[in-house]
Design goal:
Elements: H1 6-17, H2 27-39, H3 64-88, H4 92-118, H5 129-144, H6 149-172, H7 179-184, E1 193-197, H8 203-209, E2 216-221, E3 227-233, E4 242-246, E5 256-260, H9 264-269, H10 275-278, E6 281-286, E7 289-292
Helix pairs in contact: 2-3, 3-4, 3-5, 4-5
Length: about 300
């Protein structure tokens, strides 16, 4: 219980600066957390970008309830059975069960509870890997205590199949970010180079993969086609960086503008970018290499 307390400090630290990528927790998120543990990404795919590709097409019509039932049968019931077997042996085994339940449930209750009470954005899935390990250990104990060998092997096969149902689409169809590959493929940048981020919410990727001193810009185009240029600087207070309004003079020494993330949508947007931007050499990452953009 004592070692759980630092999670509260971590929660408040993130909340004070805005936990990027997190959300306000809701009761259904607790069910989603256990669904993630039991079945993987399939039942909680709506929490992730490109969610349609996180489940095999043949299983896309399967309801969340069906996924949860499947996970409960393969992981949940064996975990409960394992705890029951230990509890019936009494003495120190009962202490193990009590400590396990506390170490699984207490961190979740603390993080979700504080998030709900204070209306602060929190990480609702990622901090609980240790709790998940304990859950899996007890599921293994439950499966291992089954007397029938064929039944144990059937549970083992079911575990492998469930894992593959989640891992296969994750590794083969889910659209991952090309940030690492594209930024690694950049030539050595000089004072005549700058980065343009489109869409702007990907600006933290620039600060992560590249030197913070490299000029980074975003261009906002309103409905009246009026474009505004912003210089983006890394910031501890703003999760997307600090935005400073600027103008074409700031680009006077720039020759090459490297546009990330370049796609068909970007091609339509840049047609409305300022002339001073379009007058530079624009580069986009296409077919695993940087190529000149020709609007």
């Amino acid at each position: 219980m004592v070692v759980i307390l630092p999670s509260l400090a971590l929660l408040f630290m993130h909340s004070s600066h805005g936990a990027g990528g997190a959300w306000l927790p809701a009761p259904r998120d607790i069910l989603a957390l256990f669904s993630l543990w039991m079945v993987g990404l399939s039942p909680v795919r709506e929490y992730f970008l490109d969610s349609a590709n996180l489940v095999l097409p043949s299983l896309a019509a399967l309801s969340t309830t069906a996924w949860i039932a499947l996970g409960a049968a393969v992981y949940g019931l064996p975990a409960v059975w394992g705890m029951y077997q230990a509890w019936m042996r009494k003495n120190s085994y009962q202490v193990e069960v009590i400590l396990t339940l506390m170490l699984i449930l207490l961190p979740i209750a603390l993080v979700y509870g504080v998030g709900v009470i204070t209306a602060q954005r929190v990480w609702a899935f990622k901090p609980f890997l240790g709790s998940a390990y304990l859950f899996y250990i007890w599921a293994g104990i439950g499966i291992g205590s089954l007397k029938i060998s064929l039944l144990r092997k059937s549970f083992g096969a079911a575990v492998i199949i469930i894992a593959l149902l989640s891992l296969w689409p994750y590794h083969n169809t889910w659209q991952k970010s090309l940030a690492a590959k594209s930024f690694d493929a950049l030539p050595e940048l000089t004072d005549m180079d700058a980065i343009i981020i489109e869409p702007v919410y990907q600006s933290p990727l620039v600060f992560y993969y590249l030197d913070n001193t490299i000029p980074t810009y975003a261009i906002s185009v309103k409905d009246n086609n009026r474009a505004t240029i912003f210089r983006i600087l890394p910031s501890d207070q703003d999760k997307y960086g600090s935005f400073q309004k600027t103008n074409c003079k700031d680009l006077s020494s720039i020759r090459n503008l490297w546009v990330y993330e370049y796609n068909d949508t970007t091609l339509e947007i840049l047609k409305r970018w300022p002339d001073c931007v379009m007058a530079r050499d624009l580069w986009g990452f296409q077919e695993n290499q940087w190529q000149r953009i020709k609007p």
